[in-house]
Structures are given as C-alpha cells and as structure tokens.
Amino acid sequence: MNAHATPVPATASRSQPLSGSIKVPGDKSISHRSFMFGGLAAGETRITGLLEGEDVLRTGEAMKAMGARIEKQGGEWIIQGVGNGCLLEPVAPLDFGNAGTGSRLTMGLVGTYDMKTTFIGDASLSKRPMGRVLDPLREMGVQVLEAAQGDRMPLTLRGPKRATPISYRVPMASAQVKSAVLLAALNTPGVTTVIEPIMTRDHTEKMLAGFGATLEVETDAQGVRHIRIEGEPRLTGQTIAVPGDPSSAAFPMVAALLVPGSDVIIEGALMNPTRTGLIDTLLEMGANIEILNRRNAGGEDMADLRVRHSELKGVTVPPARAPFMIDEYPVLAVAAAFAEGETVMDGLEELRVKESDRLAAVARGLEANGVDCTEGETSLTVRGRPGGSGIGGGTVETHLDHRIAMSFLVMGLAAEKPITVDDRSMVATSFPEFFDLMTGLGAEIA
Ligand SMILES: O=C(O)C1=C[C@@H](OP(=O)(O)O)[C@@H](O)[C@H](O)C1
Ligand SMILES: C=C(OP(=O)(O)O)C(=O)O
C-alpha cells in the first residue's frame, strides 16, 4: 500500500520577517539507529527526542517484526531488545516506505542471520540502487534469493549458517554502505574491517561503541579510515537523548537568511562535524549565523543557532565537503538563487541516487522559477538574483522527495511570486512538524 497515493500540493508566498525560537525534531540518522540498536541489544533502551517521522517509524515496525518490543510512554520510547544474535525471522515482508537508511542498514543487520527476509518500499525506494549494500553482503556469504533488475527492491535475503568476516573498502562516500557492513559484522564471528577512503557521518561507529561493541578506528597518513569491529559482541540497552536534526534545521535556517528582517533561533541542533557542512558553507557566503551555547550531550556536540537575514555571496563549495552536507544541497541551491554571483557545487554524484535524482530535480525547480543554472554530470552552478527579483511563479515536481518539497517551499517565502510544489505529503517522512514550525515563525505556506 502506498500511504501517499494522492499528491497534496502546497504553495509558499513572500512572507513578513520570520521570528521566534524553535526546536527541530530529532536527528533522523540517530533515530533510525536508536530503534535498531535498542531493538537488538539485550535489556531496555529508553529514547527521548526521537524523530517520529514515517521513515523512522518504519524502522521501529521492522524491529518489532523481528522480536523487539517497542512502546511509547509519555514522551519516551521504551524498547526491550532481543539480544545480539537473536533477531527472529519476520513473517511478512519488511516495508521501508521511502527510507534508504532504514532499508539499507536493516539489510546489513539481518543479512548475516540464517533466515529469510524480504524488503519492500515505495516507488522512490524501489528505484534506488541496493547493489552497493548487497555486494559486500554477498562476500560475507549472504544469498540474494530475489531482487528486481539491477539489485533493486523488492528483494529477499537468505543468510548463511555462519557468515564470513571481510575487509571491505567502501567504493562511494556512503554512511549507509559503511553502516550496513558494520551491522552485518555484529552477527559474524571474527573481525570485520571497513575501509572508508572518504569520511562520512560517524553515528554508527559512535553509537555501536556506546551499546558495548568493540571497534577500533584508525586514520592512516592518507586520511583513509580503517574501522575494525569484533563480531558477536554483547550489546546492552542504553538511554539516548536524540539531538535536533541539522538536516531539518537547514530549512528554517535558510528561510531566515532569505526573508528580509528575519531573526530566528533554532535550539538544540546536532553539531557533529560530519554534519555541519551547510553551516560552514553559508558562513562563507556571508550568512549571519551565531553558534550559541555549544555543549556536549551523550557524546555529541550540540548548539543553538541564531540566524538573521543576510545578503549572501556566491561561493565555490569544496567537493570534499559533500559528505558532510549531502542532504543539504537542495536547500543550499535555493540559498544560492538569492546570492550575488555564482555558486558552484561539484562532487555531487551521490545526489543522483537519493529519493529522486536531486541534481536534476533541483535544476528543473530552479529553471521553473526563473533561476539560471547549469546542471553538469556531478555538478550544479547557480547564478543568483539578489533580493529574489524575478524569482517564482512556477510549480516544482517533487518526485516523492521530501527535501525537494521543503527546499522549494523555502524558496517561495522570499521569491517575488509564489512557488507551488506538486506534493507536500512526503515531508512527513523526515520532518512532520515542518508546516507548523514554519508557519509559527510567520511563513506563508498553504
Ligand atoms: O547513514 C545515514 O543515516 C544517512 C546517510 C546518507 O546517505 P548515503 O549513505 O547514501 O550517503 C544520507 O543521505 C541519509 O539521509 C542518511
Ligand atoms: C537521502 C535521504 O534519506 P534516505 O537515504 O534515508 O532515504 C534524506 O533524508 O535526504
């Protein structure tokens, strides 16, 4: 069943100054992992601040289908985990909806179990490449019993009696691939090594260590990370407070920068250095973002952000920064549309395999709204129109992609003419509170 069968359009219009203080919902990456590791570890895990987006809730359902007990009491999620090595064979296919992270990490988690597991998803997820995860799993002894053409979902895995540890060099910058191999290693005797030439978000390494796994991370002279994990660890339940999602904070942040007169505070955003590439880039563009109350909570850096309207300048974004802001390029492109001069973004090959081909979706959305841009194979150049003159009036195709929907709604708040997105329903996959929080700040979205 597709929960989003009927598209629901939304329109954003030029707004009065945005003001107020908001807390964005919990980080999506940490929330998925909290449900997974809590469901796997022995004993009780308690989670506050969990992102209750559709993607994460589907991960919770999958863990329940494999034996975990998960319930919500007040503002807290309480999990009774099965114990590492003790997941049960699900009786029905696991439906991951729109979620790349949920599906790919779970393929790693269950792939090395001697059982059969089927993965299904929506039209967007069914187009996304899964071979990147299936290839290392096959090396570990996992059989892919069925898959759609090109190693796509729906697909069925059958684990071996005893998986083989491997040393695997991740061929693309992907935290999901790295994580899938590390999770497969949990049910594999011996030491599995993941070699990561380009560092990506490190939530899996940090959180697994917190749950009791033994991992060693070494960075060699070339900057390549070698992550060694011992198989079959005893994992025990933890208490987790999920920090605010910087990828969600990106939308009110860029909105406040673009709408004249705005002054907004975003409280409790995760500041893990593998996630702050957008803030670094916006600061280089001349953004007025104050980083306040820096603190560490549960092993993660956090801060409050005060963001005020700013005249932005175009910049060249270093391709090496891409993994640290990979989900933020659509909204960065929107910021660039209002900047003086040209913004050049390169090293964007991974954007082609997200919920949509984000490079193409962004370029078409900009063009539909009067912004001049050039789409290369792995790059995007945006020529800005300071003040937003001549921007807007178009309808953007979202292709079941929440970040495309939110980015172009932010664009409409500062554009000369309103901007419509063809479907707002997918926003609930990662940021269900988006509309209420934005309109609470004064955004005109209907
Ligand atoms: O590991 C994660 O939680 C994520 C990794 C990234 O995907 P890739 O690994 O495909 O880059 C990112 O785009 C996604 O939203 C979340
Ligand atoms: C790419 C994203 O998510 P996923 O890969 O989990 O679907 C995203 O949230 O922007």
TrEMBL record:
It holds the Pfam family EPSP_synthase. GO terms for cellular component: cytoplasm. One of its GO terms (molecular function) is 3-phosphoshikimate 1-carboxyvinyltransferase activity. Coiled coil: none annotated. It catalyses: 3-phosphoshikimate + phosphoenolpyruvate = 5-O-(1-carboxyvinyl)-3-phosphoshikimate + phosphate. Belongs to the EPSP synthase family. This is 3-phosphoshikimate 1-carboxyvinyltransferase. The lineage of its organism: Bacteria, Pseudomonadati, Pseudomonadota, Alphaproteobacteria, Hyphomicrobiales.
